[in-house]
Specification:
By secondary structure, the protein is of the alpha+beta class. The protein contains four helices and five strands; from the N terminus they run E-H-H-E-E-H-E-E-H. It has a five-stranded antiparallel β-sheet. It is globular, with a radius of gyration of 15 Å.
């Protein structure tokens, strides 16, 4: 399955609006051939990334926007999450030590476990761009 051009979703940075994002990620992932477990992980990764935008880039202010771009090629599915916050140094983004038992701080671990490649960029105009790449199922098998 493929689709022409990117699919762009522009949503409010408001937790109740995240159901739209989760639903779209789940439907696209299933439809293009990812199994249930990979789809669930992608949904969680995108939800965590958007939650991080709301919490950290926007300081829980729900009057901002998050733009999510979905692109499908023959070998991979790319999800780009763009915020317009104050920006941050991507080299400081780390999940907490998994040996520490406490709530929170696992979002980056979830994201990294769900996708094959993560890239950060600081686009003109500020904010952050997170690009997550997941190889298509047939590509995953060929690389293992």
């Amino acid at each position: 399955m493929s689709f022409k051009g990117p699919v762009i979703l522009d949503v409010p940075a408001d937790p109740p609006a995240m159901f739209i994002v989760r639903e779209l990620v789940g439907r696209i992932s299933s439809r293009i051939g990812f199994e249930d477990e990979a789809t669930d992980k992608l949904v969680l990764a995108v939800d965590e990334a958007c939650t991080n935008v709301i919490r950290h880039a926007y300081k829980n202010s729900n009057d901002k926007r998050i733009v999510i771009t979905f692109t499908l090629s023959m070998d991979c599915f790319e999800i780009m999450i763009r915020d317009f916050g104050t920006g941050a140094d991507p080299s400081t983004f780390q999940g907490r030590d998994l040996k520490q038992i406490r709530p929170g701080g696992l979002g980056i671990h979830f994201i990294k476990s769900a996708v094959d490649k993560i890239e950060y960029d600081t686009p003109p105009g500020g904010g952050m761009l997170l690009k997550m790449t997941k190889f298509m199922p047939r590509q995953e098998k060929a690389q293992n």
